[in-house]
Amino acid sequence: MTITPSGVLLDIHTSALAGMGSMPRHFERWAALAADDYHPDADLSEELFRSLLVGGDDSLAALWSRHLTAWDFAEDPPWGAGSRARTDERRAVVYERLRFGTELRKALDEAVPVAQVPGATVITRDFTPWYTAERAAARPFYWTAYEQKLRDKGWSEAAIAGLDQASRAVVERLTDPEQPSARQAKGLVVGYVQSGKTANFTGVAAKAIDAGYRLVIVLGGTLNLLRAQTQRRLDMELIGQENILRGADVTDIDSLVGVDYVGDDEDWPEFVRHGGRPSTLGAFDIERLTTRDNDYKSLAQGIRALEFEKRVPTRPLHDPANLHHAAARILVVKKNKAVLTKLVKDLKQIHGILGELPTLIIDDESDQASVNTSDPKKWERGSTERTAINGLISKLLGLLPRAQYVGYTATPFANVFIDPGDDMDLFPTDFLISLPRPAGYMGVQDFHDLNSPVPVKERTYANSQEKAHVRGIYDSTGDRLQEAMDAFVLSGALKLYRADHGVAEAAFRHHTMLAHESVRQDDHADLALRINSMWHQAGYSSAVGHARLAALWEADFTPVSEAQASSLPSPSSYDELRPYVHSARQRIGSGGQPVIVVNGDTDRYFAQLDLDFDRTPNVWKILVGGTKLSRGFTVEGLTVTYYRRTTQQGDTLMQMGRWFGFRPGYRDLVRLYIGREEPFGRDKFVDLYEAYEAVCRDEETFREQLAQYSVMVDGEPQVTPVQIPPLVAQHLPWLKPSARNKMFNAELVEIRSPGRPIEPASYPLNSTVTKRNTERWRPLLHALSTAPVSFSNPPDNSSTLTRTFTALTGTATHGELVSVLSQLEWERPRYFDPHLTYLRQLDGTLAQVDDWLLISPRLVSDNRIDASVLGSAPLSLVRRSIQAGKSSFGRIASVEHRTAAQRLINEAAAGTEAKIGPRTGVALVYPVVEGNNPDSVRAAVRNGTADPSKIVMAFTLIPPKSATSADRRLVRFRAKDSRYINDATIPVNPS
Questions:
Q1: Contact 489, 585 (CB under 8 A)
Q2: Under 8 Å CB-to-CB from 707, ≥6 apart: which residues?
Q3: CA dist 228 to 232, 537, 654, Å?
Q4: Which of 215, 295, 740, 840 has its CA 20 to 30 A from that of 612?
Q5: Sorting pLDDT into bands at 50, 70 and 90, what band is 632?
Q6: DSSP H helix total and E strand total for the chain
Q7: Quick check: helix, strand or coil at residue 421?
Q8: What is the pLDDT, as a whole number, of residue 981?
Q9: Cα 160–chain centre separation
Q10: pLDDT tens digits for range 666-682
Q11: Please, how many CA atoms are within 13 Å of residue 304, restricted to the half-sphere of its CB?
């Protein structure tokens, strides 16, 4: 056996892995087969393989990273032996199939760790599987090119594999394009705000085109700017240079007439290159019916643009003999009534071929008229244009019987679920896919300390996202606008410093600040003038200005960067940063104007702004704007946000989320200046930060619910898309179809929560009803002992300290608790019924719960107020506030209390150091006073006794983990009318 160079071994491994196809097989055999022709004496031992991995052979590690990660991420593969994707168990199955030894496994695990990240959540109805691994591998031309493009952009193999699986989940639920009978599938993909949804639908388009879809219509934004951005992205990453040039010679100017990008787009060299016209490489071309600068006007070359040449004229286009030789067509059209009307009109003139044409319609920002979760009437009034667009999309679907519709949105509370009666043709009857939060994304968890058990006084720049990134604006702080501008200049200087010290500068191309105080355009002009004046008076080149910046750098940016980004280069002193401050100031103030007002919504307005992040080399500006910033308009390089707009938080959900997104190389520099005591109405004040957290928490809870309910039970889905509206209704109490003669068909009957918290929040607002409810708790209140009991939470990831609290405790039988809960009244009738249905069955019908440990925590604050409630032992009264625009509280139980209760349940289930039995539940009980300050609590007490009409007896229940059925179903629905089992809505009086 000869010494085998690493390059030769790489070739052998590449061939062997390619030969295996989509599943891991006995690697030694396949490697021997690959080596047989040219390298029969190659050293194929595991020892050499392992030594190269340990020695840092990047090429070999990259090859195996690609394949191991793909196998790790595969969902329910036939070879997977029941192992879950992205787990050590799955990796072990892969190694067994490859027949690798222990030492090699260790080396591969070190080189390619298992990416234990969440996958997409899929809510689906039954479908016929057709997009198998073999089918996908047979024709992968455009997907392979796109996959390589993502690799070239720096995507990790885990991110690519995640996109592969998420896009596959969409494509496999579309109809087989070769299927003889026409069928339309409709679905919705839910991402996060500014989180890369375009990457997903580009992957879907690539796979769909490879599979046989021959017309792709992308509805991209309401402005030419947004449409052109989407067109450019698809042209660059999917369609590629050869399809754009269509044979034109880039060295011949005359042949480039009408060809975009060449000569006026500096990124043209980065556009995908296929190595020749795809049709000459055994694949097929893509013809663009729209370009970067030209939206759809009419079918180019008339109707002939949709004439497909059939190899076998006697067979339909969707027949495989014709389909896979025909070129695909792509249109990226503006979501505009006039444009879509023209497209519909032109398609009506085409006869015959439309019925044979597999079509994919991708609707970006499908909830285009953003949902006003706080004012349904206002939302309905603004829905006219959206309804017109939806109607035109429905007409497209009518003209194209083989068309599939996939909507993309950033909110799980999308219009199609909020109002399926709006236009049933667009309701996603087939699937809902909720994408996971991508790696590197800054979202709600990066600005809010959601569920953090760390006491507020112990929070630092290292363990608190709020402390690191959020700067509250209070009466006591002044408006902090100058500080926000200083932070913008400093963060720009730090970006330039990092670019000069080895950090990739591509992420620093744009650097922006967004200021938003009001919805009124006159106010925007005033704010812009104020910022402009402040900029010129800031003295950024004076000793005073530098002293101010140095103080902010030392007090804020230095400690945050040390805690959050210690691996990034950082200046040792402000003097070292000072030259970069000068450069940042010059960039921001270029043209004498540091501020751009962005409050228009027309193409002409945006054209004159010259705010095209794709075609402008550097945008370093302060943007003043409001809700007119169109949906889908990404503010690139956004680093500092100044937000003080007072409104119901639901109105501004998408606008407020502008500070979410990818911030590579500068996450630690991101700052959010936000109003914490903004005037609202006559005598009210609103904390915008808390208001937004409440909205985000609702969305995150809903995503968690979807993930729980997506688990199949006995091979059947627990939830189908038509059953989503009543789940959404749990979060949006006003939810109902807008059509007066419609109602939701699915009724939520039962929610089961074994080992999980049940925490209702919609308590009555009427004092008389509140008093009645409190009196119903009397027998359980009297069961609480007078001697406090201590509970503790040991050190964990959130804190190195043991945290303790005391509480009054008691025990109630299961029957006693259910008796009290059954009598309670709620602000929304039947609100608690799905939980109550479950709890009532824990008498042995579904499972057996013997009793409940009652825990009434005592607060540790200095200004704690204890009072007797209906003759009980003195209880700690808790203050909670109603969420703005809703009839419910935010969180009831504190994180520490819930953590302790959950630990009791978990220990009982595990049988380790259990303090309660395996059939005992835990009930956290809180006497709550609604109010915004401690005075409201004092007002509810007289002579040590609480007024029952001012006390809301709120609770969090955690049933034992054993409180479930054998099938482990978590949710149950009932169709109000079984004749319409697959319909989301039905007539109020169906005949």
A1: yes
A2: 118, 121, 434
A3: 6, 38, 21
A4: 215
A5: low
A6: 33, 32
A7: coil
A8: 75
A9: 17
A10: 999 999 999 998 887 77
A11: 3
Q: What is the pLDDT of residues 527-545, one digit of tens each?
A: 999 999 999 999 999 999 9
pLDDT at residue 740 in the model: 57
* Residue 303 φ/ψ region, left for φ over 0, alpha for ψ in the -120 to 50 degree band, beta for the rest: alpha
Q: How far apart are the C-alpha atoms of 195 and 752, rounded to whole Å?
A: 32
Which phi and psi angles does 646 have, rounded to 5°? -95, 125
Q: Give the mean pLDDT of 324-343.
A: 92
Per the structure block, which two tokens stand in for 523? Answer: 């106010």
Q: What are phi and psi of 247, to 5 degrees?
A: 90, -10
Looking up tokens 């052109």, which residue turns up?
Answer: 228
Any idea how long the chain is? 991
The pTM of this model reads 0.86
Of 930, 938, 763, 917, the closest CA to residue 849 belongs to 917
Identify which has the larger pLDDT, 827 or 377.
827
In the block, tokens 């929304």 appear at 828
Q: How many Å apart are CA 129 and CA 148, to the nearest integer?
A: 27
Q: Within a 10 A sphere around the Cβ of 237, how many other Cβ atoms?
A: 22
| pLDDT digit string, tens, across residues 904-917 | 999 999 987 789 99
Question: How many Cα atoms sit within 13 Å of 957 on the Cβ side?
Answer: 25
Q: 403-409 and 359-363: which strand pairing?
A: parallel
pLDDT in tens, 586-608: 999 998 889 988 876 666 666 65
Nearest C-alpha neighbor of 612 from the set 218, 231, 195: 231
Q: What is the mean pLDDT of residues 964-991?
A: 76
Alpha carbons 640 and 480: distance in angstroms, whole number: 12
Query: Which CA distances in Å does 955 have to 783, 786, 892?
Result: 15, 19, 7
**Residue where the block lists tokens 């000793």:** 543
Whole-angstrom Cα distance, residue 217 to residue 205?
10
pLDDT band at 350 (very low <50, low <70, confident <90, very high): confident
Query: Which distant-in-sequence residues (6+ apart) come within 8 Å of 205 by Cβ?
Result: 216, 218, 234, 238, 330, 360, 362
- Lowest mean pLDDT across 160-169, 222-231, 468-477, 769-778: 222-231
Distance CA 283, CA 275 (A): 12
Phi then psi for 621, rounded to 5 degrees?
-145, 160
pLDDT at 368 over 60: no
> Which segment of 146-160, 221-235, 622-636, 884-898 scores lowest on mean pLDDT?
622-636
- Name the one residue in this structure whose structure tokens are 């007066």: 740
Hey, what amino acid is at 473? I
CA 144 to each of CA 123, 137, 148, 238, 720: distance values in angstroms, whole numbers, following the listed order: 27, 10, 6, 10, 32
Specify the pLDDT at position 371. Answer: 35
CA dist 462 and 464 (Å) reads 6
**297-316: string of b/e by CB count within 10 Å (b at 16+)?**
eebeeeeeebebebeeeeeb
Q: What strand order describes the sheet that includes 328-333? A: 121-124, 431-434, 186-190, 403-409, 359-363, 215-219, 328-333, 286-288
Tracing tokens 């996202």 back to the chain, one arrives at 465
Judged by phi (left if over 0) then psi (alpha if -120 to 50, else beta), residue 825 lies in beta
Q: What is the DSSP string of 88-155?
A: HHHHHHHHHHHT--HHHHHHHHHHS--------EEEE--------HHHHHHS-HHHHHHHHHHHHTT-
Residue 267's CB: how many other CB atoms inside 10 A? 11
**pLDDT score at 376:** 45
Rounded to 5 degrees, what angle do the CA atoms 870, 871, 874 make? Answer: 100
Q: pLDDT value at position 369?
A: 40
Write the secondary structure of 723-737 as one string of H (helix), E (strand) and C (coil): HHHHHHHCCCCCCCC
**Beta strand pairing status for 286-288 and 328-333?**
parallel
Question: How many other C-beta atoms are found inside a 10 Å radius of the C-beta of residue 845?
Answer: 9
